[in-house]
Amino acid sequence: MRKALCAILLTFAAPLAAHAQSADLVLCDRLAADPSDPDKPADVKGVAEIASADVATAIKFCKTAAGASRRAMFELGRAYAANRQTAEAMAAWRKAADKGSSAAMVELGVLYGTGSGVARDEAQARKLFEKAAQAGNPRGVSNLAALGGAGGAAPADPARARELLGKAAETNAEAQYQLGLMLASGDGGQKDDVAARALFEKAAAQNHPGALERMGAFAQEGRGGPKDAAAAKAYYERAAALGDEDAKKALERIRCPYAIKNKQGQLVTTLCF
User: Fold this and answer.
1) Exposure string (b/e) for 230-267, b if CB count within 10 Å is 16 or more?
2) In Å, how far are 26, 52, 164, 223, 260 from 254, measured between CA atoms?
3) Measured between alpha carbons, how far is residue 98 from residues 48, 49, 104 in Å?
4) What is the pLDDT of residue 259?
5) What pLDDT is stored for residue 103 in this prediction?
6) By C-alpha distance, which of 67, 124, 145, 121 is closest to 99?
7) In the predicted model, is pLDDT for residue 95 greater than 70?
8) How far apart, in whole angstroms, are the C-alpha atoms of residue 82 and residue 85?
9) Given a cut of 50, is residue 164 above it in pLDDT?
10) Cα 202 from chain centre
11) Which of 65, 101, 213, 236 could form a disulfide with 96 if both were Cys (CB 3.0 to 4.6 A apart)?
């Protein structure tokens, strides 16, 4: 009878433990997910920077979730880094990178490339960026190109960055956005607003905030396609809802298009509608 009771309790305990672990990961994601992490689920927005008030809580929940999730291990590293615990952040990122987290590889590469908290080692940084780039991580691609040639002797190679981003952009919204920026500015090759707009549109369809803002600007200006004020406003609104500051400013300019200045050219007020 006692053995049967233990078996029943264990049966109920297993799903409860799994649920608790899942809740820890949800909270870890909410406080510490990186918007550009390819491991991040589409329904998790992520935060550019972990709020100081959330750091201790993020460390607590991410530490619990990290045992079963490489994404949580990476996010634990972010939380440690936000708390200026560089050694702990590096240890977490190493574990996450060993499990295949390309975002962790990038963060480690940045530390080695800049010599932050560790002896500067550009060869190691390049190795990490290359591994992340091969996994399709757009930050790995751009950082690898920015690092330049062997030993840092060669300058950054925007053309190479375009080439690497082109491969990642086949499936990754961040890479589509970054490549779109390069095409729009003519960085690393010929300027191509039409191709840039197409890339922004692809990334915007995946709710990439920066791409939504750029689509708003391109639609507003008629760059690379038709001019459409209504579509521009809609794109800006979607980007603003995701926290994009440039989109918020663009919406304010649409709302208050006329600036009144004094004789000295100083802004006195704006007319809003």
Assistant:
1) ebbbebbbbbbeeebebbeebbeebeeeeeeeeeeeee
2) 37, 34, 37, 18, 15
3) 24, 24, 9
4) 66
5) 96
6) 67
7) yes
8) 8
9) yes
10) 16
11) 101
Q: How many CB atoms lie within 10 A of CB 179?
A: 29
What do you get for the CA distance between the two ends of the chain, in Å? 76
Enter the tokens of residue 11: 């049966």
Q: Note every long-range contact of 180-187, with CB atoms under 8 Å and residues 24 or more positions apart, other chains counting.
A: 180/211, 180/214, 181/214, 182/158, 184/214, 184/223, 184/224, 187/158, 187/162
Q: Which of 49, 115, 59 is nearest to 88 (CA)?
A: 59
Report, in angstroms and rounded to the nearest whole number, the Rg of the chain calculated over CA atoms: 23
pLDDT at 271: 64
Residue 104: predicted pLDDT: 97
Q: Report residue 84 as tokens.
A: 């200026």
- For the record, the structure tokens of 132 come out as 């992340």
Q: pLDDT tens, 166-176?
A: 877 887 788 89
Distance CA 26, CA 65 (A): 9
